[in-house]
Amino acid sequence: MSLATRDRLENLRRISTESFDLLVIGGGITGAGIALDAASRGLRTALVDRRDFASGTSSRSSKLIHGGLRYLKQLQFKVTFESSREKNRLRRLAPHLIRDLPFVFPVKAGLAGRAAVTTGLWLYDLAAGLPGGMIHRKIDVAEAARLVPGLAEEKLSAAYVYYDACADDCRLVIHVVKKAAEFGACVANYAEVVGFDDDRTARIRADGRELTARAKVIVNATGVWCDDVLRRRTKDAPRLVRPSKGVHLVVSRERLPLEAAAILQSPEDGRVVFLIPAGERVIVGTTDTDYSGDIDHPRAETKDVEYLLGLVNRHLPAAKMTRADVVSTFAGLRPLMNEDAENPSKVSRDHVIVDDGILTITGGKLTTYRLMAKQVTDRVCRKLGVKRKCGTHRIPLFAAERSDDALVRNYGSEAAKIADRTPLIDGLSYVEGEPEYAVTHEMAATLADVLARRMRVVLFDREQGRGIAEKVARRLAPLTGWNVSEQVEGFEREIEDYPK
Q: Is the bond preceding 362 in cis, omega lying within 30 degrees of 0?
C-alpha cells in the first residue's frame, strides 16, 4: 500500500470535491481506528489531521499495550478487562509489532502487602487470559536483582514477575492509517479543520488554502484538542477534557542493563513508574500531573526529570542516575475526562462519546483504540440508518511473524519493500532505505515526520537525529522537492519538544 506525497494532494482534492458518509477529525490512534472501522464497513470515509498522523499523544505514550494493573487497585475493573481483551486481539492482528515483556514487581511491604499484590496479579492474569507459561510467578530477591541490576535487595520482602506487552505507538498508528487507506479511506495530514458551516460541513485549511469538506456525519477524535475543535463550532461548548501530562526519560541500556521491564512505586505519592527496555534504550515513565500550558508543545520540566531520576535512584541506588544520563525526554498529554478528582491519577481511563450534532470521543487508552473505534462507528451507522457489523477484530495490520529483524518488527509484511539496508546510525538499528519508504509509502511530508515519527530517531537519540538531518533531507529532496535548509530548520524546531 502506497501513501506518497502525490496521494496526499489527490486526497485533498477528493476531500474538497466529493461527499462522504464520515469525516474523522484527528489522525491519532483513535481517529485512525475509526477511519479503519468505518472504511472496512464500506462507509465513504475521510480522515484529516492538522499536523502529522500521531504527532500528538499517540507518539508520546509509555508504549505499553496493557490491561493496566494499577487500575485494579482503583477498582476500574471494566477498564482492566476491556484492555486485557484488546491487548490479546492486538497480539494476533500485529504480532510483529506487539512485544511481550516480563515485568518485575518488587514488593517492600509486609505480609499484607504481599497478599494484596498476589491477589491483584491473579486477577490480572484472569483478565488477560494468558497462556500458562505467562502466568505471574514469585521470584527470589536474587533473581529480581539479576533481571533488574541495581535493585536494592535489602529493602525487598518479595518480588514477582508478570507479563504485559509494548509496541511502538507511532508505528501502530501508521499501520492503522495505511490499512484504512487500503480499505478506501481518503486520508490527509496537515489539513486543519478551522470551522464548521453546519453539522455536515467543515472548513479545512491545507497548504495555504481553504477547502470545504462535506460528510453526513462528522467525528471529532482529536484527543486533548477536542475542546478547541468544538469551540470552532460553538463558542461556549462545555469543556470535556482534563489534560494530564505524562513525562518520560530515555536513557542508554548500558546505564540500565535491564533483562526485564520493571514497575516501581513512589512512596511519596503512590504513582507507578515503569522501566521499559526498548532495543538499545530504556524508557522511564511516567508522571501524571494536571496541565494548563500550550497543548501543542508539552515538554519535560526540570522537576519532572528530577522526580523520575529520584524514583529510579531510590529503587536502584547503585545506578546513580543523573541528568547527564538522559538521552532525550518526551511528554504527552492524556485526554482524560473532565472529572472532579483532585489527583489526575484517580480519573477514570474509560472513554466517553458525546453527540451534539457531531460526535466527539475523548478519554480511553492506546490499548483500547479498536474498541473505542467500534463504539463510535456503531453510533455513526445508527445515525446513517445502516446496519453494518464491525470486522476489525479480524483485520490483520500488515501482520508478520515475530522476528529479531528490526525492519520486520517495525514494518511487518511491508519490510521487504525497504531495499537499502545499509546502517544509517551507529548503535541504532535504522537503515538507509527507511527515509525513502517513509515519503513514498507512509505520507511523511516533512523531515520531522520521517525522523521523529516514521522512524523514532529523535526519541531514542536526539543528538544523532540532528547529526543525520541534513544528510537525510538532501537524499529525499529529489523525491519530494524539499528545500533542504527549510526542512532542517523545521526539524530543529520540532526536536525542541524532546529536550535532553
A: no
Q: Is 429 exposed, middle or buried (0-12, 13-18, 19+ CB in 10 A)?
A: middle
Write the DSSP symbol of residue 454: I
- Helix or strand run (H / E) with residue 102: strand 99-107
181/233 same-domain check = yes
Determine, yes or no, domain membership for 88: no
Element (H, E) at 142: helix 141-147
pLDDT of 392 reads: 99
Domain count within the chain: 3
Cα–Cα distances in angstroms (integers) from residue 257 to residues 111, 147, 252, 423, in the given order: 30, 9, 8, 24
Same structural domain for residues 248 and 154?
A: yes
Q: Distances in Å between the alpha carbon of 374 and those of 25, 352, 369, 377, 380?
A: 16, 13, 9, 5, 10
Same domain, 250 and 305: yes
Does residue 64 belong to any structural domain of this protein? Answer: no
Residues 48 and 179 in one domain: yes
Give the range of the structural domain holding residue 458, as residue numbers without chain letter.
418-497
- CA 250, distance to chain mean position in Å, is 16
Locate 80 and state its grid cell.
482492566
Residue 487 to residue 297: CA distance in whole angstroms = 19
Alpha-carbon distances of 336 from 24, 72, 82, rounded to whole Å: 20, 18, 17
**Residue at a domain's end among 337, 355, 372:** 337
pLDDT for the residue numbered 350:
76
Q: Is residue 23 part of a domain?
A: yes
Model confidence, pTM: 0.95
Same domain, 464 and 353: no
Residue 290 and residue 219 in one domain: no
367 Cβ contact list (under 8 Å, min separation 6)? 64, 65, 66, 67, 68, 83, 86, 87, 90
Asked if 351 and 465 sit in the same domain, the reply is: no
Ordered mean pLDDT values, 10 residues apiece, the chain (500 residues): 86 98 99 99 99 97 86 73 91 96 85 72 77 81 93 85 95 98 98 98 98 99 96 90 96 96 88 93 94 96 96 95 96 85 60 94 94 98 97 98 94 96 90 97 98 95 93 97 98 92
Angle between helices 77-93 and 111-128 (to 10 degrees): 50
CATH number for the domain including 318?
3.30.9.10
Q: Which residues contact 273 (CB under 8 A, 6 or more apart)?
A: 263, 264, 265, 266, 284, 285, 286, 308, 311, 312
Task: Give the Cα separation of 111 and 107 in Å (integer).
Answer: 10
